[in-house]
Amino acid sequence: MNKENQNIEHKRIWKDEYLKWVSGFANAHGGKIYIGIDDDLTVVGVDNLHQQMEDLPNKIINNTGVFPETNHLSIDGKDVIEIIIEPSMMPISYRGVYYYRSGATKQELRGSALHQFLLKKMGLNWEDMICDGMTLDDIDDNAVNYFLTHAIEEGRLAPERRNSTKEEVLANLGLLKDGSPTNGAVLLFGKHPQRVFVTSSFKIGRFGVDDSDLLNQDVISGNLIQMTDKTNASA
Hints:
Layout: E1 8-11, H1 19-27, E2 31-35, H2 49-64, E3 69-75, E4 78-85, E5 93-94, E6 97-102, E7 105-108, H3 111-121, H4 141-153, H5 166-172, E8 176-177, E9 180-181, H6 183-189, E10 202-207, E11 214-220, H7 224-234
Parallel strand pairs: 1-2
Antiparallel strand pairs: 2-4, 3-4, 5-6, 6-7, 8-9, 10-11
């Protein structure tokens, strides 16, 4: 019998709080829950087998929308229920909360972790989403020209692409969606990306004899395309 791991959970008896584990398994890589086996792998069996075999699938379906495979196993002469949860293509919540199986633990997804998880389940990436309130006017012509110049110099673009419009450049890079710049477009080419993404700047410092000897410090902001030159100028 396998010990608990990323895909296996043992429970002495069923408790409704284990619906959180169902959500966690479905949102991750799937898994199995064994009812009637203690954490130390002692087989204790279950009571009211037939009733539980009927009740548990209905409870899981009604509370999570997950359709489990429920099996009756006989181990050491005792009745054990095996619940198999397949990974879901859609995000699965329990009472409005999303869980994720990580290692041998159940994690409640919140904040940015939940946001990234939902985007991934929907086949989306954050950088590919339209940047709310931003238009092509918010894209810096100088940044686009900088990109074209360096890409042509390095042989990544043909010289005739030098006169491409910023709309053409963004479209070719996959940074336009329905005619609007994406989050990635604003980070790379935006005039003032920090107005939208306040944490997209970074600090650069110069130290003396040790880490406590800070000689000077600058905050580097602007779009990512031109940040390298700003960093080199500041160094």
